[in-house]
Amino acid sequence: MNETKSVPIIKAADEELKQVLFIAMLPDSTDLHGDYTSSEEVRKAKESFNKSQMQANLFHDQMTDSFEVLESYLSPVDFVLGDKFVAKGTWLMNLQIHDDDLWELVKSGEINGISIGAVAEIEKVEE
Hints:
- This protein is α+β, with helices and mostly antiparallel strands.
- It has one domain.
- The chain has helices at 39-51, 100-108, and strands at 11-14, 19-25, 29-30, 36-37, 57-58, 62-63, 67-74, 79-81, 84-86, 91-97.
- The termini are close together.
- 13% of the residues are buried.
């Protein structure tokens, strides 16, 4: 049985460049909605997003140029980001923030993560 667990909010910011690295999806884990995602499905989601030209929107509401996705990739190895463990296969996104007000929201922690806004097929799995 997969237990629901909290998903760590992990980001690394470069103040000078106004860039921030966020975790987009964790492999082989259960999210805050109780849905489990395998490492293979995380890989497929990342590939689909990258093929869609990595377009940015703000709060699932409007397309924006206030930030852009610089990189979208799977971690090739386990590593530590700040004081948090990041597993191999974790989907990471590096964002370039262009808007000063948005950058302040990121720095203050008011914006503390990203959402991939994906559409998925759900498969009920026996426990």
